[in-house]
Protein 1
Amino acid sequence: MAERITKNMARNIYFGGGLFAILVFTGLSVDTVKQIPKLSHDDKITESVARGKVVWEENNCVGCHTIMGEGAYYAPELGNAFARLGANDEAAFKTYLAGWMAAQPLDTPDRRKMPQFHLSPEQVNHLADFLIWTSRVNNQEWPPNIKG
Amino acid sequence: MKYSSQMVAKPYFIFALILLAGEIVFGLSMGVQYLYGDFLFPAIPFNVLRMVHTNLLIVLLLFGFMGATYYLIPEESERELWSPMLAKITFWVFAVAGVATILGYLLVPYATLAELTYNNLLPTMGREFLEQPTITKIGIVLVVLSYILNTTMTVIKGRKTTISVILLTGLFGLAFFFLFAFYVPENLVMDKFFWWFVVHLWVEATWELILGALLAFVLIKTTGVDREHIDKWLYLIIAMTLISGLAGTGHHFFFIGTPGYWLWIGSIASAAEPIPFFLMILFAYTMARNRRIQHDNKIALIWAKGTAVVGFLGAGVWGFLHTLAPINYYTHGTQLTAAHGHLAFFGAYVMICFTLISYAMPILRGRPHGNGPKAQSVELTSFWMMVIGMIGLTLALTAAGIIQIQLQRLPDAADALDFMSAQAAISTVYGVRLAFGVMVLVGLLTYFYSFFVKEEKVTA
């Protein structure tokens, strides 16, 4: 194969193919950015959800957990935590999360440990609102079952 | 060594290797914590170990690329580096900033680090691989700009080759896409979408250009095949990289809240992503077969072939395993992803750094024909220990992923195990993974030892 292709042909494939790929990817990206607000219910991002995302980031939660399948694989998926741990009930989920965060680290020998993050009640509430918002994102019905 | 300014590459190479040792030690610690959750806890929780592990990898690869560039650009351009002094200053700035950041991760809780570095002014922290404080990110931009300036000026003032122009294209791409690290919108979906512009478009687009250029350089030097031939292959490889890799970003947009058409586009485009890696194997082996010279540095050519093969396995084969949307639906975010990540980064990027180091270090140490046969045979042993260790580790993680999917993902909710129970069921496999990890570390130590092997004196 390679014998019949000259260097000039190869260079043209690179420039032509590369340019084509850039245009296609850019076009699709523009469309995606337009669609994301609706798919993610952007209008439901309250002040508390936004602050919850900062709590999520500033404590590096993604260093152990996944969220919508992305992150580390040491600890459970949290994109659907609201459904799994709170049974889609906001008050129940918030109570559960506050209790869970306060109880860390669990005193079970050699179980994987979650640190104590010393979050304030407000921060836990924001974090809960962030996870509730996340669970409602339209993400092609992933994960396959509630176990995450 | 043809140009004295090539010598600035040496500290970059040495520091990259030291960071690699650190990366592996932190990786092993995580491997232990997977089995014994109390290990190092609460002194260093898992998220900190992981952050140090992955950040060391990124930084060591950047050091490796910089060292490689400073070594090859003068030779390609047929002139001294534009500013050796700038390259030396850049080295120290990057090394100090890198070490300070790692110490920051280790010494204070992450939330405190965010506070100390004023993350609230321009929040960029707390996202996978981009955990660095904003000030460090700005530092990385400055370091990369200085690196690009030095390289560009050298290329502009000297001979322009396909290799140097493609390398430079890769570097500009690397710098451009890193800028997305500063964009952190409130909407998590938008955040994730642009996060991949850094992560995927680094490793599966711009870095592949760099990889191709570095591989081509070593092949020219060790085989003596003429440039026309090498350049043609290089263009074909990077053409396929861009054609498959850009739209291939779509394989990350299946289940994160992005539109459904990515399920098709991502699957189809990324199914072609093994092609450039397969071409690299053909490239390396064809050039080696048609070689015009018998270079005494045989181990450098072995690394070059190795990076092509293991890169293809890790990025190509292990990527393809779970890149189709219907399969990824079950594999997304499992140990299978970790399996792919480990072998891809090692094969494609760590091994290309070894290739360059193996070729250039002996020359920088005054041995133009490579190390002596004894040192090369020690290095060959280390090559196989690291490669077998990484492949073993990857197979173990693959088994872990498959079991995890069987227990947790495939059954109905009523029968599926929860995450922690599934993990407990995999612990033996994690033990195997850890053992292969130890083999990689021993391999690296053997590699270090090869630098100090004394040859019997040949009387001239």
Protein 2
Amino acid sequence: MSPEQLLTWIPLVPLLAAFGVVAARANPDLREGVSIGAGVILFLLVAGLAATINWEAPPTLVIATPVVGVSLALTPEPLGMLFALVASLLWPITTVYAVGYMRAHHEQNQTRFYTAFAVSIAAAMCIALAGNMLTLFVFYEVLSISTYPLVTHAGTDKAKRAGRVYLGLLMGTSIGFMLLAMVWTWSLTGTLDFKPGGVFNDEVSGGVLGVLLLLYVFGTGKAALMPFHRWLPAAMVAPTPVSALLHAVAVVKAGVFTVLKVSVYIFGLDRIEQMLIAEWLVALAALTIVLASTIALRQDNFKARLAYSTVSQLSYITMGALLGVAAGAIGGGLHIAMHAFGKITLFFCAGAVLVTAHKAKISELDGIGRRMPWTMGAFTIGAVSMIGAPPFAGFVSKWYLLSGALQTEQMIAVAALIISTLLNAAYFMPIVYAAFFKPEDDGHGPATHGEAPLPIVLALGTTALLTILIFFFPGIPLSLVQQMVGG
Amino acid sequence: MTLWDHLPVLVVIIPLMAGPLCVLTEHPRAAWIVALAAAWLSFAAAVVLAAQVSDTGTISYHLGGWEPPWGIEYRIDTLGSYVLLIVTAIPALVLVAAKESVVHEIPESLIARFYGAFMLAFAGLAGIVATGDAFNVFVFLEISSLSSYALISMGRDRRALTASFEYLVMGTIGATFILIGIGFLYMMTGTLNMQDLAERLPAVLETRAVRAGFAFLTVGIGLKLAMFPLHLWLPNAYAYAPSAVTAFLAATATKVAVYALLRFLFDVFGFEFALRDMPLDHILMILGLAGILTASLVAVFQEDIKRMLAYSSVAQIGYMVLGISLASTTGVIAATLHVFNHALMKGVLFLALGAVVYRIGGVTLRDFAGLGRRMPWTMASIVLGGLSLIGVPPTVGFITKWYLLLGTLEQGLWPVAILVLIGSLLALLYVWKLVEAAYFEPVPEGAATVREAPWSMLLPIWLLVGANIYFGMHTEVTVGLATQAANELMGLRP
């Protein structure tokens, strides 16, 4: 297939899968088969596009032209390609996991679940491949809305309240800030295209640029920069596959991806480096990293601890983007991929423990590693990768981030990276220790469960393996992000 | 002259003749068929007219062959043809859905007369748009107003009677003001033809009589428009009218008033005088913003969903007024676009409410409990219509917001832009109250089993939902027409 055809099919495949899921609702095996099959096809399409694309003349797909002068268009770009690769690779794996999880957990409304999931993936693909800011914004909103039924899946009062926080913060910031920033950019420059080096000329005053940067960064609620991070812990009420793929990969990465795109292609790294406001935002990101890690330390709920860890890790990427140097942007871009594999593994493990041992609290995990060796083994790999130790994925991106921070002499960023590494170890390692070395004692007599269901173990084993592989073979992500900064 | 040349008048005459015919049939079914056929014929005429206007430019039709300014002229320009499309398309769709809901809500003996009044209101609205004569505007306004008073009073709830009476009092004051205003203009210029007025007015603009006439006209139209703070009649009228009437009036009547405002401010007086010399731009901007914010806020606290959406309409009118107040091409584009876009979204929402009334019998928040499961298609259409109301892409609501924001930022009015966005977020609040009730509340104990609405209701609803999304992505037609209309109004020829 030609790149143009591949580009057309990439958003269509998950969308068709959504219809397929509804059509096959009477037969659960067929229904999940559709999802997994579509996932595999989607990954092959994205990989095919990544392999055959000519970056000098990327293909473009114009969907529509909603306002004069700006179209809804898909144009692949290196960073987006990386995001699309990660998300499409993890979708079929998550679906395999979901089959085990949703059935073991006896969840209701599974057809709605898989449908909304497929639509969310389609939106994520369109965000990744968005050819201009308007397209990105449109599908950013579609993603917020299509994930709402997933967050509120349980239908309880708690889920309803979480849904309010989720949609309120995400749409409040995007409509209140990002839309304003976008229209303002358009009225200043007459373009919303992503241009290397930025779209603003020197006539735009520094003050206006500063306000615009603030609007863009805070308008991207999905990047979970404090004080707009509350939606992410709230979204943990969703079934674990959703937390794993959407709230560790697709949705949150769409947020930091937007921040990176805005810094690199709307403002340009050189301009960012000279902006005072960017330094403040770097400080805010540093604060978010440390604060969120500290909060994670105090969470006993397994998924809540992971959620705050995500808040903290996302700010690595925001910080990398706002440092305004190539190394920072490369580190941020790489972290999109690196964090994805590690964090999805951790969520898979949390879900596996929940459905197998019915335990949602960290204090109950003593000795569980002996009953669920595969699960907790994978957890260990994910945790070490989060901390950023070699030979796991997290090390590579942290290396670049640190060198970017040193290069710009922003010591607050350097300090945040070092402190958070310690904090990461402090909130992940006790779990590993308790699981493998503490004696089993939950006060209810000896537990009877064994390892998690096979689909779950397969999925989390695969992602753990990927976490290691990507450390030894970082070539593909690295070459893509270097392409982004023109190196 | 062939039949094609008579289209400007046929658009009005067809529904006008259908009105009495409906009453004469004295049979519910026959009256419905007559009304439906007339509405679709009139819509077809409007489509052909729009094509003619875009091909050959403004059409001037001389009633009875009398030359203007002595005879009455019907004048269809881009703006007119655009608004005519809305004014004829909405009743054509509403009438499809009305068949079931009218049988359900109106006593059988009244149905034929109901359709008669409906078609008269339709004819009046189409007439306001088609005519080029100021006095004719008043006449058609009264035709449409008097018949809408009757239509509203046919609501099942007895409060419909007081609502109708309130509207009658306010509407009559408005119409009288308009008549006085036109009288002043006639006194000073000796003409009633709008083109002629526009030519003669500049010479006498500085007189007190013209200025008084201008004030009377603006306030009078503001009353019909339900411009804040002249909107008090609207919530009750919309809430207690029969469902089909609410859908029809909400999507067309206020739009026609916006049209009349645009016509008088920009064409007859000229925007230099209307919005700059008379400081109406500031007044309209403040009133528009106040309308957006207060009405949205009031909507958040409504328990009756029809009232909630009625207040939302007042807020949406605020957006149109705000667009006009910018007195720029982009602002007028935003206002005219919203005339069309708002008709699409409110059409969906009020028709869907009609379907809920048809099945459940009421539309308070409590009636919506668990409706997401019981009437999935109806509720899905309400969610999509609501998203359009909020301005979420890719719906038409987003397109309006885009041009409105662009218009404000062009003039550096960023505080206004922020207030517009706050209005959007308030819309999110009230729409989501509805979503939570429908999808999270359990079905009340002992509630009767409810089926999905009949297809004759779902079909027009989903046609409009489709239009909400289609015109949110493909705006060549709507933005193209709005831009051309704005250029004509601003006195720029492309």
